[in-house]
Amino acid sequence: METERLILRKFEENDLEALYLILKDKDVNTFLPWYPINNIEETKTFYKEQIENKEYYFAICLKNDGYPIGYIQVDTESDSHDLGYALRKEYWHKGIVSEAGNALITLLKENDIPYITATHDRENLRSGAVMQRIGMKYCYSYKEQWQPKNILVTFRMYQLNFDEKEDRVYQKYWELYDEHFIETNL
Fold it and tell me: Is the peptide bond before 148 cis (omega within 30 degrees of 0)?
């Protein structure tokens, strides 16, 4: 897929160095559900387990060189259809993930994915802003003892429906966690 500034394409094994630059950075991975990667071998394992053969997992590349600077993905193997993304910090605050997100949404609509969800740590306001910029709506918040980092996190759950079921809200996290609520001061 191409946008004005970006190419979204499948990761390949020869992208491991670029993937390592994304996964090793402590700041980039602060709000992600894993610890920073320590070496290329761990990167290779991550690629095999998390990325390879996933239908909607894309490298975010600038058009001028095609080198991956981030990723964006939707997990269609789960009923949450969870959207996730990360970007090397030197590319933050340029609208890159929003641009990639809008392109991915177009593809998902064409392939009859009914909706996507995404969650962000309440402390990670910039991730929530990305969700809002691509049209996602806040639904509710919940508290989770987040693993593997074993910290209590308040997550905000966003959703974007692509079909006529505009009122549909994915309820799994609401039902799974005892402490859940709707924030009104967003």
Answer: yes
For residue 69, being part of any structural domain is answered with yes
Does pTM top 0.85 for this prediction? yes
What CA–CA distance (Å, rounded) separates 165 from 121? 27
Length of the chain measured in residues: 186
pLDDT above 90 covers a percentage of the chain that reads: 95
Tokens of 178: 């005892």
Cα distance between residue 124 and residue 1, in whole Å? 28
Give pLDDT tens digits for 120-168.
999 999 999 999 999 999 999 999 999 889 999 999 999 999 998 989 9
CB 57 within 8 A of CB 8: no
Q: Which domain holds residue 108?
A: 6-181
Give the integer Cα–Cα distance in Å for 118 and 127. Answer: 10
For residue 186, is it within any domain?
A: no
- Domain assignment present for residue 1? The answer is no
Q: How many domains does the chain have?
A: 1
- Report the pLDDT value the prediction gives residue 174, as an integer from 0 to 100: 98
